[in-house]
Amino acid sequence: MTLKPLEIPSSRFRFIATLALVLSFMLSAQSVRADDLISRESAIVKAIRRVSPAVVNISTSKLVEGRANPFFSWEHNDLFDRFFKDFFEPHTRQYEQNSLGSGVIIDSSHKYVLTNHHVTVRASKITVTLSNQQEFEARVVGTDPESDLAILKIETSIEVPAIPMGRSDDLMIGETVIAIGNPFGLSHSVSTGVISALNRSVRTERHVYHNFIQIDAPINPGNSGGPLLNINGELIGINTAIYSGAEGIGFAIPIDRAKRIVDNLIHYGRVYTAWLGITVQDLNEKLISYFRLPVSNAALITEIVKGSPAETGGLKRGDVITELGKRKITSSRDYYDQLSQHTANESIEVVVYRDGKDHRTEITAASFPPERALVLAYDRLGFRVEELSRTLARKYGVPEGKALVISEIKKGSQAEQIGLRHGDIVRGINDVTITSEDEFKDAIIKYRLKERITVLIQRGWTVYSVPFKM
């Protein structure tokens, strides 16, 4: 028996052929599209995908008090605001002010979020929103206005992702960086750029910040507190919008600096600045000639406190400090500025020139001894204080209340030259209100490394803002 070939109608054949062609085209297109996606998935895309879940939106609410002050308009001076509250309380009104910022989760087990101090300052309520839009309340663990850093703790038991930590001591100018944040409330916005400069000092209305990273991507309001990443998606800095005059540039706090601050904030709720126990001065031609120094820009040690970290670490009076913490020291001011970047219990490398040679040593810094604060104030400012008692109030003819009164003026001091008197009342130092000796000590310790401070002095019913050199 002979089999006949199978006959397929031409219309059905054309349909099968067309279907096979379409399927082949679709599979080919999908393969091409997959290859295209893979080729477009750059290192930046991978870094953002890896890190985004750890970036949070921070919204804050705070009660702002407005009052009618018939004499001054101290809108940006909290110290004056608090002082005049006592006199003009009947004319106050309260309203709620909301603001937005960014933050980054740095510890998944404790739910710690790192952000900027100015994002959370005076907030009565803080809400953290994760990348999946879940919202949680958060509380402040610690904050430091000098470094513009703050630590929050998310109030939740769920698991949250933490960002991979990087380092900032090996950054390169021209290196690609990625900034993530919530500018103007637009969550998880990404900008890229390069590192333009390192170790930048930035002066604002109230502070001078040191050792910032400068990038060519602008950091807008809402970006503050967000992460600055390297190309591998590692945290190398915290973005900050503290310089409002910047166009086309931004600044970030190096993560190595932030780590030291974070440790203090988590354990103590505040920052204890490093103390070595030395006094330094600038070099002049006579000193350079006397010590036969090969350098003209450095800091000369003129005094060492007995039992201090400096004495324990082997430093001597007459040593010339040329480096501190791997930074060149060119003057006494430079020394104090660099020391302010370090914290208590931190090991700091110091290089001094002595007997024609460089000597390198590691010194473990301590916190400033509170019992030395009054001595420091007398030496540098030129006055002593006492808590205002009823007897002192009668003696100096001042109103009774919680305050500090000047009880002694040092001859030839700044205080004497300025014209301070016995019985003048110390109301504050910089942004710290002073009502007790302990608060006075804390303020002196806090601002001891500053170049200048402002002391609020009351005489009679008049309040004066008096500048002092520290």
Write the layout of secondary structure elements.
Elements: H1 10-40, H2 43-51, E1 55-67, H3 78-88, E2 92-107, E3 112-115, H4 117-120, E4 125-129, E5 135-144, E6 149-154, E7 176-181, E8 189-203, E9 208-215, E10 227-229, E11 235-240, E12 250-254, H5 255-268, E13 274-275, E14 278-282, H6 285-290, E15 299-304, H7 309-312, E16 320-324, E17 327-328, H8 332-339, E18 347-354, E19 357-364, E20 366-367, H9 373-380, E21 383-387, H10 390-396, E22 404-409, H11 414-418, E23 425-429, E24 432-433, H12 437-447, E25 452-459, E26 462-469
Helix pairs in contact: 9-12
Helix/sheet category: alpha+beta
Biggest sheet character: 6 strands, antiparallel, barrel
Kindly report the oligomeric state of this protein. Answer: single chain
* Overall pLDDT level: 86
Given the structure, what is the number of helices? Answer: 12
Q: Report Rg.
A: 30 Å
Shape: globular
Q: What's the end-to-end separation, in Å? A: 117 Å
In short:
Helix 9 packs across helix 12. The chain has twelve helices and 26 strands.
What tags apply to this protein structure?
Pdz3 Domain, 470 residues, Thrombin, subunit H, 25% helix, single chain, alpha+beta, 6-stranded antiparallel barrel, 6-stranded antiparallel beta barrel
Molecular structure report:
This protein folds into four domains: 52-154, Thrombin, subunit H, CATH 2.40.10; 176-268, Thrombin, subunit H (Beta Barrel), CATH 2.40.10.10; 274-367, PDZ domain (Pdz3 Domain), CATH 2.30.42.10; 370-469, PDZ domain (Pdz3 Domain, Roll), CATH 2.30.42. The chain has twelve helices and 26 strands. It is an alpha+beta fold. Helix 9 (373-380) crosses helix 12. Residues 68-75 have low confidence and may be disordered. Helices cover 25% and strands 36% of the residues. A hairpin with a 7-residue loop joins strand 7 and strand 8. The strands form five sheets. It has a six-stranded antiparallel beta barrel with strand order 1-2-3-6-5-4. Strands 7-8-9-12-11-10 form a six-stranded antiparallel barrel. It is globular.
